[in-house]
C-alpha cells in the first residue's frame, strides 16, 4: 500500500470514518480486496457514494488508462470485507457482495460521481476513452 493510502486509512480509522485529506470527508470506505493471484488482502481506500444501504465505488485510478489492480481483484473475489463509518463515530467492518454496474446503468451512476466531485470529470481527459468500472457493494 502506498504511503498516501496508508495515511488515508489511518486518518479514516482514527476519526471514525471522516477523512479531511484530499477532500474525502465522510465519503470514504476501505475495501479489503483479495489479490486475484496472491490471495493476499489489500486495503483500498476509495471515494464511495452511499445509496439505500449499499455503496458505489468507481475504478477511475485518477484517470489512468488502465483499471486499478483492485478492479481485477473484485472481479476475481466478489465477496470481501469493507470498513465503513459506524453510527457512533467509530469504524466498523462488514462483509459485502460486489457486483459490477451493467452498461445500461453506467451513465446514471457515473453522473452521481461527477456531481459529487467534479474531479471525476477531469479524469476522463487522461483515460484515453476508458469507461471506468463502477461497482455496487451490498452488505452480505
Describe this structure in words.
The protein has helices spanning 3-14, 69-76, 103-116, 119-123, and strands at 28-34, 41-47, 49-51, 54-58, 79-85, 91-100, 134-139. A seven-stranded antiparallel sheet has the order 2-1-5-6-7-4-3, sandwiched between helices. It is globular, with a radius of gyration of 14 Å. The protein has four helices and seven strands, in the order H-E-E-E-E-H-E-E-H-H-E. Helices cover 28% and strands 32% of the residues. It is α+β, with helices and mostly antiparallel strands and 140 residues long.
Keywords:
4 helices; 7-stranded antiparallel β-sheet; alpha+beta
N/C terminus separation: 26 Å
Q: Which ranges are low-confidence, i.e. pLDDT below 50, for 5 or more consecutive residues?
A: none
Computed Rg: 14 Å
Structural class: alpha+beta
- The best one-word shape is globular
Q: How big a fraction of the residues is strand?
A: 25-35%
- State the total count of DSSP E strands: 7
Range of helix content: 25-40%
Write down the overall mean pLDDT.
Answer: 94
**Tally the helices: what do you get?**
4
Order of helices and strands: HEEEEHEEHHE
Report the major sheet. Answer: 7 strands, antiparallel
The largest beta-sheet arranges its strands as: 2-1-5-6-7-4-3
Amino acid at each position: 500500500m502506498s504511503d498516501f493510502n496508508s495515511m488515508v486509512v489511518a486518518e479514516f480509522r482514527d476519526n471514525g470514518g471522516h477523512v479531511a485529506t484530499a477532500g474525502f470527508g465522510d465519503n470514504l470506505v476501505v475495501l479489503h480486496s483479495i489479490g486475484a493471484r496472491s490471495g493476499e488482502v489489500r486495503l483500498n481506500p476509495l471515494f464511495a457514494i452511499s445509496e439505500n444501504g449499499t455503496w458505489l465505488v468507481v475504478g477511475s485510478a485518477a484517470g489512468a488508462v488502465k483499471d486499478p489492480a483492485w478492479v481485477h481483484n473484485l472481479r476475481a473475489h466478489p465477496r470481501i470485507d469493507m470498513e465503513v463509518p459506524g453510527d457512533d463515530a467509530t469504524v466498523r467492518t462488514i462483509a459485502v457482495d460486489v457486483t459490477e454496474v451493467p452498461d445500461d446503468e453506467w451513465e446514471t451512476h457515473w453522473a452521481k460521481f461527477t456531481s459529487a466531485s467534479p474531479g471525476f470529470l477531469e479524469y476522463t481527459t487522461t483515460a484515453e476513452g476508458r469507461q471506468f468500472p463502477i461497482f455496487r457493494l451490498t452488505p452480505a
